[in-house]
Amino acid sequence: MIKRAHFKAPLLPYLLIFPQILVTLTFFYWPAVHGIAQSMMISNPFGGRDQWVWFDNFKDLFTDPLYLKSVGITLGFSAATALTALLLGLFIASQANRALRAKAAIRTLLIWPYAVAPAISGILWLFLLHPNYGVVAFFLKRTLGIDWNPILNGTDALVLIIVASAWKQISYNFVFFLAGFQAIPHSLIEAAAMDGAGPTRRFWAIIFPLLSPTLFFLMVMNIIYAFFDTFGVIHTITQGGPGGMTTTLVYKVYKDGFVGLNLGSSAAQSVVLMALIILITVLQFKYVERKVQYAG
Amino acid sequence: MVEKTPILDLLTYIFLALGICIVGFPIFYALIAATLPLEMVSQVPMPLFFGDQFWVNIQAAWQKGNLGTLLLNSFIMASGITFGKICVSMLGAFSIVYFDYRLRSVAFASVFCTLMLPVEVRILPTYEMAANLFSPLQAMVELLHIEALVGWFLQNDIQIRLELSLLDSYPGLILPLVASATCTFLFRQFYLTVPEELCEAAKMDGATPMLFLRKILFPLSKTNIAALVVIEFVYGWNQYLWPLLITTRREMTTAVIGLQHLIPDVDDVPDWNVALAGALIVMLPPVLVVLFMQRWFVKGLVEREK
Amino acid sequence: MRKRNFGIWMAAAALVLVVCAPALAQPTTLQWWHSMKGANADALNEIVTNFNASQKDYVVEATYKGNYDEAVNAAIAAFRAKKQPHILQCFEVGTLTMMLSGAIYPVHQLMADAGYTVDWSKYLQPVLGYYVSDEGKLLSMPFNSSTPVMYYNKDLLAKAGLNGPPRTWDEVGEYTAKLVAQGVEAGLVVGWQSWTMVENYGAMHDLPFATRANGYEGLDCELAFNNPQVVSHIARLQSWTGDGRFAYSGQKFQGPQAAFVGQHAALYIDSVSRIGALKKTAQFAWDAAPMPVEANMAQPLNSIIGGASLWVMQGHAEKDYKGVAAFMAFLAQTENQEAWHQKTGYFPITVEAYENLKKAGYYTQNPLDEVGIKQLMRGKTTKNSRGIRVGYFIQIRDIINEELENVWAGKKTAQQGIEDAVKRGNEQLRAFEKANK
Fold first, then answer.
1. Pick from C16, C253, C261: which is nearest to B163 by CB?
2. What ipTM score was computed for the predicted complex, to two decimals?
3. Do both C203 and C274 map to the same domain?
4. Other chains touching C, judged by 3 or more CB pairs under 8 Å
5. Number of structural domains, chain B?
6. Per the domain annotation, does C382 fall within a domain?
7. Residue C93 in domain
8. Which of C72, C252, C437 sits opposite A239 (nearest CB)?
9. Which three-class secondary structure state does DSSP give residue C246?
10. Structural domains in chain A, sorted by start
11. Each residue of B78-98: pLDDT tens digit?
């Protein structure tokens, strides 16, 4: 889209967009081309002796049960993380919206985990939930009698990284939802209340539809977060274990490429992820564009 | 009026208090751990009262983790990314929204292809690129046997190396992360909501495009920019995978990565008190930025979504 | 709108034109990238300082480059950018990768080219054996080598009416049963399970880890640790997880060590390099003993080493390599090896250093330090106990760890877990073979 009122200049627009194009070409397109080429090669990490194998790396990838397992883990992990963070964020925001006093203070107390690095969030939660010395783990084991052991039990490990990842995302979602709530005209809700609609009815009939664009946006953001930004959490807590139960796709790219030195396979995995993310972008884009169009 | 019974209100506050406690507990607990001596922090369960070793642990973490240098690196990296991204995208979006030119749609499409494409998925090739920005040129030199030619000309053995390695450098930490279209997209969205009349009036007054940008668009974008500063600063500060790879010299790495060296390894003494003291130090700057710029941040975030 | 800060990096752009000029009369700097932290790094730096003080031609510059995989990555990136160090410390699992990298200068060759005649037979063979080519030529200089031993909590054992450590695995079973009955949470914990329970278990019982002499004789080797003995050993451990006689406590973050130090476990199998940390943290009486063996193994073989060795990288000037050779020779000197061993607990690499310390009565005062060496030097080294030389060993260890975790968690039987590990590991081996044709 372009503004109806716009400028015409021969050189200026090119100059203005030049830095953007330059960094994009250097750090996106060139590496992407390189990565695609690499994904069709088997190479010695030290250089030289590259063999062109076409799609063998991809074929190996999609017949590798471990990779498929990792796909499953990533989907489950992302869904769980996004859902936890969204629901808790929504719930806390709805409560905060009801609160009469101290709204600003409440927001302050809830907003800051957004600023905590995923890697640090990982450290904090590891310290709380480590089976040997974590205090929450101690509570789970002694008081609730749960056999909590994320070191040995893959499901527990997955729960641990979901908790650590969702925690800091709650505040992000909270901020959006709270703003979403506040943007809903109070008169609308009061009118519904006067018509005898209870809180549940009001939520589904009025609030939810008005919040749904926010919800959609947050869903995409949360899934992207769970896919990519949680690398730090996994790297600090589980390194993909136990039994590979927390090896997400991004973690596998790192592990196979940088630790295992299997460059071809790692590049192939990157290409798959790139395709995936472009797909998500296109979907999101379509939606956002449409929204903007009827906004004005 | 919507229902307002004392019980419901009470419930609301209880839930909120609960939420705040759950969200705050990890930090609260880390804060306690950071005040305890080694013997007490290794107890299971760790005592839940504050000790008197806070300053000692902070100092230990500061020294052991070389946090002085690393915090500076983090600060440079985070500010560089913030500044770079905002500058690049403000101009880029301006070009796309306010100009009509032949390659406009090409530029638009090629930039927005990278929207949301995080550095994580192109990590390996980006790394190779960063290792030597001139790798394509170097390949050409080798192909054309320029070395031999020049060597023959100078009657001397000569080696030509075209290289610009971004490893272990601030540009290396910053630039690849600047290459993302998210901010450009947001600026574009914002510019589209700016009333047409403003531009028409500016044109009528004979203002140049740059003057229009400086005098009208920039002041209007201030809230957005403030929000972006917060978002990008936090984003830059918290980067993990990229600095992990691009830096090999310990004094060039960032605080978040340096913190990993504080976590007790298999071979070390389990000094979690020091590790957590370090974690508190490292998380402080972005938390402060978020808290102090909260108002703009929230406003900008929400406008971002619209 | 001040902008476009790209001047910075355009200025950083450098067109490097190197004309090979005659050397200036100043010492040549030799880069050494390593992964040693804490006390080990102090000991390393002392060696470097002493070497630099001992002569005027060369200055060794030791740099910490992160843990082992980070250091290898840094070296790979540097090699591609032609900025590699002279010496790289690389962990034992990376041996084959380094050997085939085309980026190294074999140490035996380096020493010969620089005019040193080294009598390699005077080195500790079980250490050297891990890093020699199939023809017995040394590829990299052993640096920090360790081997697994068994630590035991004397207090807990005494409380259960036991004196002295168990010698055989059967005894481990009896001991741990008694310990658990006494209220100890876990009988036995182990660190680096693939290294201790599969690789070393096999070596000591003369069982192959892989065909083709554990991979020394060719890339076409296949994993072979799915033999009945290893399987029944793993099955036994699995059965012990049921009643707490064996507990798995993770690969990282001090799992097993923390369990031992916290007196949650009475027996603890891990590297000899843990001695230092245990001395600092364990607040009870403890000691170390050789790893348990099977009762029918009257003469168990040597255990194999773990740790890292020093690889010399290609691409430097000849005179630099003279310096590297001088440094290697310096490193192997008896007094340096003695100091290294005493300060870090890692093994000396020459027999003379060991014998000297023995004569001086070091081991009567520090019996802990000799447990590992004795275990390493016993018996006659066979092709099964010399070492392991397989490709993508890092991934293979990961696979073994994963499958063992599945076994401990009761998801698979020992047989199935081991078979799966072999099968998946073999896929890695074939991929490596393909990549290194």
1. C16
2. 0.82
3. yes
4. A, B
5. 1
6. no
7. yes
8. C252
9. strand
10. 57-295 (1.10.3720.10)
11. 999 999 999 999 999 999 889
